[in-house]
Write a structure and sequence with these properties.
The protein has 9 helices and 8 strands. By secondary structure, the chain is α/β, with parallel strands linked by helices. Strand 7 (259-266) and strand 8 (275-286) form a beta hairpin. The chain is globular.
Length: 301
């Protein structure tokens, strides 16, 4: 039985993409824990999915860029901007940031080679590689050093992150870019995969502590903060017309956002012929004099 030409093309495209991702993985230098915990693989997979879903992602990427560009107009000084979760630069108006600020610092746990190549085009842009939660490497080492592979670990407390050196030790704008809800995803998967904790209240409490620490670190800087994050997951089954949705920031309360939109992260056909996945995204801008003191007991999105 002969396969139709279109089916052949789909199969060839799929395997070509897998081979390209594998070669990128081999060619990308990264610390052992970053590779073992899946951060490098995820960065490569995001880049590959963007290529497949470019038109579906476009509104989300443009909304993110435009919100950041508008945030620049609300700053008074333009010495340094720090971007947390710069990723593959897909949702970041790097050119505008470079033209507006004296220095641009891009922070992420992984910077792919193609990203570093792009950064080198801008003399005032630097990449800083680190885990802003300061927990992933500790988790990796704790699991690695267990005497019993079924032994639970004591989950490390997140720390207030320290930004790279900036003028007067205070940037004029900090952007948390589509990273907030994702901070615990890879550690959580690695913890459960290695049976280092139960999928229960202890792990959930730790996840909330990581998210709370991120927000508290942002507001402790006493500077302009731009926060863009997804807050709701929506899975649609187009065959049964059923919808599965849940809040991705359970336990974390935030004030009402200035703007929201839908990120069509996996259109129908990307995961399966019947399933599509969306995320609701919220964008906030906090000036130093109008930041929330605590993230608890505030208006829920």
């Amino acid at each position: 039985m002969f396969l139709k030409p279109y089916t052949n093309w789909l199969i060839l495209t799929h395997y070509s993409s897998l081979i390209a991702e594998f070669l990128t993985y081999l060619a990308s230098p990264a610390l052992l824990y970053i590779k073992r915990m899946g951060y490098l693989k995820e960065a490569i997979a995001i880049d590959a999915r963007y290529k497949r879903c470019k038109s579906a992602w476009s509104p989300h990427l443009e909304n993110s860029k435009n919100f950041i560009i508008n945030a620049l107009k609300r700053c008074k000084n333009f010495r340094t901007v720090v971007v947390l979760g710069s990723g593959n630069l897909l949702d970041l108006p790097l050119l505008q940031l470079s033209q507006t600020f004296e220095k641009v610092i891009l922070v992420d746990i992984v910077h792919l080679g193609k990203t570093l190549k792009t950064i080198r085009k801008f003399p005032n842009v630097v990449a800083h590689t680190c885990d802003i939660t300061e927990t992933s490497e500790s988790i990796f080492n704790l699991i690695k050093s267990r005497a019993n592979t079924a032994e639970h670990i004591e989950l490390p407390l997140p720390k207030m992150f320290h930004l790279p050196e900036t003028q007067d030790n205070c940037p004029d704008l900090v952007i948390s870019l589509n990273i907030f809800s994702q901070l615990t995803v890879m550690p959580r998967e690695y913890i459960l995969k290695n049976k280092a904790s139960e999928d229960g209240p202890v792990l959930k409490r730790w996840e909330n502590e990581v998210l709370e620490s991120h927000l508290n670190s942002l507001f402790a800087l006493k500077t302009n903060v731009c926060l863009i994050t997804d807050f709701e997951f929506i899975e649609r089954n187009h065959r049964t017309q059923s919808v599965n949705q849940y809040y991705t920031l359970t336990g974390i309360n935030l004030p009402m956002p200035e703007k929201t939109w839908i990120w069509n992260i996996a259109p129908k056909g990307e995961i399966s012929k019947d399933i599509s996945i969306e995320r609701k995204v919220a964008a906030f801008f906090f000036s130093p004099d109008k930041q929330i003191i605590s993230i608890r007991h505030k208006n829920i999105l």
